[in-house]
Every structure is written in structure tokens, then in C-alpha cells.
Amino acid sequence: MRALSALALLASFGLAACDQPPPPPEPIRPVRVATVIPQAFEGRSTYTGEVRARYETSVAFRIGGKIVARYVEVGSEVKKGTLLARLDPEDTRLAIENARAQLNAAQADHNQAQIDLARYRKLYETKVISQAEIDRRGTVADSAAARLESARSQLRVTQNQMAYTELNADADGVITSIAVESGQVVSAGQTVLRLARPEEKEVVFNVAENRLDELRGASAIRISLWAQPDQTYAGVVREIAPGADPVTRTYAVKVSVQNAPAAMRLGMTASVAILRRGNEGMVALPLSALYQEKDKPAVWVFDPASETVALRPVQVSAYVERYVLINDGLKRGEKVVTAGVHKLIPNQKVRLLPEAGQESKS
Q1: What is the pTM assigned to this prediction?
Q2: What domains are there in the chain, each with its CATH number?
């Protein structure tokens, strides 16, 4: 009796299993693809730098003294000859008076020596004195003439020093920094301020040592300001520092801006794009297309005949910003999945979404 009950129960389970509908087919996954088009890919590396003047000089007094006035501030635009600062002229004025007094004394000695020489020459003609005496008097006159010339030169030097108490701009430019204040005592040659000449501008930025070859092999350099990102300007590498910064271990690079506009002001932040031509036959795909199989790069390739995808290993040449450059493993015209690669399995049926740039045409 129990056996019959068990058989009846199994039969009921079997009928119930037969009545269940089959599982639904796996949905066709939509994917976005990109067509393989080998080409010479133009690589781009972007750096951030600061706009500076190519010519920026330290301005200083030629003599020492106490600063009694300063007439400019940081950012002041000056013309050639503009008075920037002034020293206390009192010591220089006293030096001029002293030099003038020395000149007067030397002039008097010279005049007296000439008079004595003329008188002794007359005595020599009458044979009153010897040749040795007339020679001695001639030497005295020559010494007085030399002292007179020295006193004249000293007076000119002190007069120049009076002019040096005023610090003037030697060119048109902009004041970028000031190192002293009124009342401060400075020595000759000590930096008072820095003057930048804005006719030539450059962008200064730092580059790691493993990226220096990109600069040397650049096909073009494009510069844009953060304040005006839609405007670009051509650049030329002017200087690469011969040594690395001891702290950052990077190299300072200076790029001259060609035809820099007046709107490019000193201190602005700029982006420097280094463009370089790649090898022929490169395939550029979005980074999202890359998949890994056993720690090796691969991509999903679409088969139009079966409408399925298959995983194919590829050889990666380089990574450039948002793209990966592939130089082996793909053929022209093939379609590679660029989105959702981690949700695919081999031989899975897929449905293609419009490629980038084709949605607006459909």
C-alpha cells in the first residue's frame, strides 16, 4: 500500500514538472561598437604652466644708500625712463662738494706749477740755474697737471653718483616683485625690484624625466589659457633645464608663445598640449573597449554573420589620455565592442547600437 502511494506521489511530481514552461531565451544584449580604422594616431600630452615674460631682470642701484622714496607697486606698468625709487642724496651731494674742492686745489697747484716753470725757464736762459733744476721744475708741473686731471675725473664720478641716486626703468615693462621698502638701507647691486618686459611671453611648466622624449619628438605645440580655453596659440620649446629639481625630480621647460596676444597677462595659467605623430597602422580605441584574459589585453570582436562576439587578444602599443593604441590583433573594418565588455561571454548574441557620430544621421 505504501509502495502504491509513493508511486502515485512521484507520478504527480512528474506531471507537475512536465507542465512547467521552458526557461525564456537569454535576451540579446545591446552593445556599442567602433569600426577598426588603422591610421597614424596623433598623440597628445597636456601640461599646466604659468605665463611669464621671457626677459625679466633684477633692477638695483649702482651705489649704496638709504631709500627715501619708492614710486611703484607690484603690477605697475612703467615706460622706459620712469622713476622707480630714490636714495637719500645728502652723502652724494657732500661728496660732490668735496670733489669740487679737490679740483679747485689741483687747479691752483697746476697754475702755480706752470708759473714757476715759466720763471725758471727764463732763469735758465740767462744761465742762472742748471739744466737739472729746470728738469725738476718740469716734473713738478707734469705732476700738478696729472693731479688736476685726476680731480676732474673724480668730480665726474661723484656727479654720476648723484644721478645714480635715482633708479629709472631701462625698458617698458611690468613690475613683478619688490624686495625693499622706503627707509631701508641697500648696498650697491642689491635687488630692489624685478622688471618684466612683456613683448615676448613664454609658458613655464615641469616635465618628468620619462616624458622628455615627447618634447623632443613633438610635431606641434598648442597653448591655451584657462581664461580663454577656446583660443589656441602656437608654441616652440625654447629651453629644457639641464638638471632636475632636487625636490620634485622634474625638469623645468620653457615654451615661447608665438604672436602672444595682449590678453595673455603675466601669471595666467595655461595648458600646453604636446602633439606628436604616431606610427602608421595604429588603431585607437576607447579605454572602455579593453578587456583582460589571463592578465593579457583583449577585446570583444563582433561577427556580423552570427551576430555574436568573440574574445581576441591584442597587442597594446601605448595608452594616451582616454584611448588605447593597438598595433596588432585587429583588421581594418572589424567592429570592436566599446561599452559593457565585462558583461559579455563568448558566442553571446548581441545587438549593435549606432556608432558614435551616426545617431544624428538616423
Answers
A1: 0.55
A2: 29-41+280-353 (2.40.420.20), 90-164 (1.10.287)
